[in-house]
Amino acid sequence: MKKILILIMVVSILTAVVTGCGNPSKENDTGYKVVATTTLVADLVKSIGGEYVNVQGLMGPGVDPHLYKASAGDVKLMQNADMVVYNGLHLEGKMGEIFENIEAGEKVVLAVTQDIDESNFIDFVSSPGSFDPHIWFDVKLWKEAAKTVAEGLKELDEEHTKDFESNLEKYLGELNKLEEYINKRIAEIPEENRVLITAHDAFNYFGNAYGFEVKGLQGISTASEAGTSDVRELAKFIVERKIKAIFVESSVPRKSIEALQEAVKAQGFEVEIGGELYSDSTGDAGTDDETYIGTFKANIDTIIDALK
Ligand SMILES: [Zn+2]
User: Fold this and answer.
1) CA gap 11, 18 in Å, rounded
2) Separation of CA 11 and ligand 1 centre (Å)
3) End-to-end Cα distance, the chain
4) Ligand 1 centroid to 109 CA: how many Å?
5) Do residues 130 and 90 lie in contact, with contact meaning Cβ atoms separated by under 8 Å?
6) Of the residues 42, 141, 144, 161, which has the maximum number of CB atoms within 10 A of its CB?
7) CA 78 vs CA 44, 45, 132, 158, 225: distances in Å
């Protein structure tokens, strides 16, 4: 009996010692190191890579990727990573050269948009020859992005090819369900109410895919500001069409959309601010909106509830 007690004590002490000395960042030492630019891209890589990747996102929720400049720390992270994943189509407008320099090295570097057929892209009106980067608002195109990420992961970690393929299948199934949800919610409002007015033109793919007329106040990139004539024009449109609600965006200051609301008021009509939409990032970590799917659901709920 005594011997057993001593044994138990020894084991507990040993366990305590081992746990106490355990490396707290152990989790960070397993899996391939993948650096992703935006929260949306990071979520996509996690969804397909699962336990075999350790994803580090550069931009947090609510950060504007059009204006984001990589810090020296970001560049170092990318240099030390096994794989770097970005959106492409110049979403990360101030980071282009960095990707080119990193691509010269050994690692897997990919843009999630790189394999999508150009015929699916919407022209970037203010910059001929380049395309609107906000493709994640068409779930069909995000499925293509998921396939590209799966291919990149297979290249990185051939041994787990089967796992990446089954994760991809599962994720595509979840995206099918998301599409069903979107279509079900849109069917709740009459066609003439399907007008989406936001701070910047992030929603053109959404409009094309789901039958919404879309108007952005600020142009496709947030780099250019809306002029007073743009505000007046759009206000006139809102009054004429008796639009119920306009929307602010998580990564754009709300003052421009408030100016629009004021301009509508000056023309004798009241338009509500229907809520905040996630445009270029997911919601906060630790909430239901931290994934692409959660983000899209939150957006569609905000839009439909305000325009009903
Ligand atoms: Zn944007």
Assistant:
1) 10
2) 56
3) 74
4) 22
5) yes
6) 42
7) 18, 15, 25, 21, 31
Asked whether the beta carbons of 134 and 203 are under 8 A apart, the reply is yes
The Å distance, Cα 239 to ligand 1 centre, comes to 26
Distance 201 CA to ligand 1 centre (A): 7
Distance 134 CA to ligand 1 centre (A): 6
| Amino acid identity for residue 203 in this structure | F
Q: pLDDT tens across 151-194, in order?
A: 999 999 999 999 999 999 999 999 999 999 999 999 999 999 99
How far does the centroid of ligand 1 lie from the alpha carbon of residue 5, in Å? 65
Separation CA 219–CA 225 (nearest Å): 8
**254-299: per-residue pLDDT in tens?**
888 899 999 999 999 999 999 999 999 999 999 999 999 999 999 9
Ligand 1: centre distance to CA 40 (Å): 12
- Enumerate domains of the chain plus CATH numbers: 27-161 (3.40.50.1980), 183-307 (3.40.50.1980)
